[in-house]
Task: structure prediction
Amino acid sequence: MKFILTFFLCIGYLTLNAQQSTASKQVTTFTIDAPQLKTTKKIWVYLPKEYDSNTKKKYPVIYMHDGQNLFDAKTSYVGEWNVDETLDSISAQVIVIGIEHGNEKRMDELTPFKNEKYGGGNGEAYLDFIVQTLKPYVDKSYRTKTNASNTALFGSSLGGLISFYGALKYPKVFGKIGCFSPSFWFNRKEIFTLMEQTKTFKTKIYFLCGDNEGDDDMVKDLNAMEYQINTKRCECKLLNKKTIVQGGQHNEKLWREGFKKAYLWLF
Result:
């Protein structure tokens, strides 16, 4: 657990390296005010190759945390997810919106409740920014399918935690969740209590973790959350999938290699 926290605190402070940019031509950026967070946010946008040539088609959207690590080795901390190359390789028909993490405020933004030891707990404002400010702008600026079944939220570690919380807080906005190596330990009591209090859970969700993540509770928590979800709906609906990678560690390699399967299953 301490390894995971230390690793991702480092991400908040180190964002640039000396490598050449590896982002594809389909990736652009813009900056937007985030009044809920009292800051501005850099946003990465991936568009399908055919986006400009097919001017009437609309696309589903994936909102992803830690935008620095998704598309470009130059801005990533310890390696990118290769989201653009992966989607290009399968001619994916989707728009991806990567949201800049808050550097030293990353932990605050990606945790829904305060941890007694580590602090945090500003995740609700972060989600409000996505739903109330960013998504309306994206839907106005790009040809998107705006309903929940075509809107996904993806993240890893603390990003996995806030993505799952997003499913609970905004079920009518996010109909699909990519929940990779979620740090449920950070808000274990609160997130499990909230899940238990949830009457229905219709969100389609893909869980991924490794069995060697440096946290003995990772697989245990994932299994426990899957059980809670299945008490809220019939397993026959096949709305959740769990992949546990043998030897998988808490890093970009695991998430990069798991992204394609998660995308294909969710969409």
Summary: Residues 6-18 have pLDDT under 50 and may be disordered. DSSP finds eight helices and eight strands in the chain. Helices lie at 2-13, 83-89, 106-109, 123-141, 158-169, 188-197, 217-230, 252-266.
